[in-house]
Amino acid sequence: MVKTQHNASHMVEYGEPVGIIAAQSVGEPGTQMILRSFHLAGIESTISTSGLPRIIELVDAKKKPSTPVTYIYLESRINKSFEKSEELLKKINEVRMSGIAKRVLENFSKGMIKVVLDRQELEVEGLTAKQIASKINKELDLDADVKEGNIIISTHTKNLKEIRAASIKIMKMLVSGIDGAGRGTIRRDEKTGEFYLVSGGSNIDGIMGIDGVDKKRTTTNDIFAIYRLFGIEGARNALVFELKKTLKEQKISVDERHLDLIADAMTSMGTIKGVGRHGLSGEKKSVFARAAYEETMKHLIHAAAFGEIDSMRGVTENILVGKQMPIGTGSVKLAIKKEDLAKIKPKQ
């Protein structure tokens, strides 16, 4: 019997199936998340997706989060002033015509569109009818004028489809703020006393262009928005942070190294890939490993048609065919030297 001594400098023992352990470490608490979700009725609703739906959203690498949120921190010169925070919020808030118009009246016989504005909403957003009319003239190339506090627009056509198309464009038009930034609110950190903004959008690139925004601390829960702005390393770090945050909200403790491994696997090719059939599981080199996950017949027929070879180096494929897995003691192969083999005398 050979004694082995654990080397304290090793982060993990040789041959340990770290991928499976990481999957188990996140998958098992996921069952608890399902159970706990039934007890959240009395808790104040959060502004973003949480629990198991959020975990699935992250590991499936969905292009857009179901509830995008951006946490906008302000520079030290203004973050203690509510008035200045409110001014900055007005610059960021995404305001569209549909949000400040009570109704739109179309006059097809004259080719005119009348936008009845909500004066209360205009006051809240700090806008005037003249500013909006000027924006319509500039961006949509139409003739807009202000009459009795409302906007009258000439479309220069009596074609019904063109008038309706112009009406739809007007209602979707961005009046002020940043496209994709969503609507925000002002919050205050009880510990530091500073004000910060929480916005229901993920255009972090546009938000960071506003003077007064602290670019070092501002962040979003949209992993792909971070990837586009900061690259794959930024996306990898954001993925770990979001996974850790979601588990912590559910009071579930998972070693961060498991989350690191999942994030590393998802971003190792320079892009963000999900763990499902369109990502890591569907792109494995092993035919049996791909077939074991989903779309079994598709993978087997494709492998047979194109003569694919399975080297049987993974865990899944060896379990399928009943072979010893190349993990733990199975990762060690015994061999004998040729000269020693020659010394062995065959039995007479």
Describe what you observe in this structure.
By secondary structure, the chain is α+β, with helices and mostly antiparallel strands. The chain folds into four domains: 18-65 and 223-267, Orthogonal Bundle (PTS-regulatory domain, PRD); 70-92 and 181-220; 95-176, Gyrase A, domain 2 (2-Layer Sandwich), CATH 3.30.1360; 284-330, DNA polymerase, domain 1 (Orthogonal Bundle). The protein has helices spanning 18-37, 51-59, 82-92, 97-100, 119-125, 129-140, 160-172, 204-208, 223-230, 232-249, 256-267, 287-293, 296-306, 315-321, 338-343, and strands spanning 70-73, 95-96, 101-107, 112-117, 143-147, 150-154, 174-176, 184-188, 195-199, 219-220. Helix 1 packs across helix 11, helix 12 (287-293) runs antiparallel to helix 13 and helix 12 crosses helix 14 (315-321).
Key phrases:
10 strands; single chain; four-stranded antiparallel sheet; Gyrase A, domain 2; alpha+beta; 348 residues; 4 domains
CATH class of the largest domain: Mainly Alpha
Report the count of strand segments: 10
Structural class category = alpha+beta
Number of domains: 4
Shape: elongated
Could you give the distance between the termini?
Answer: 31 Å
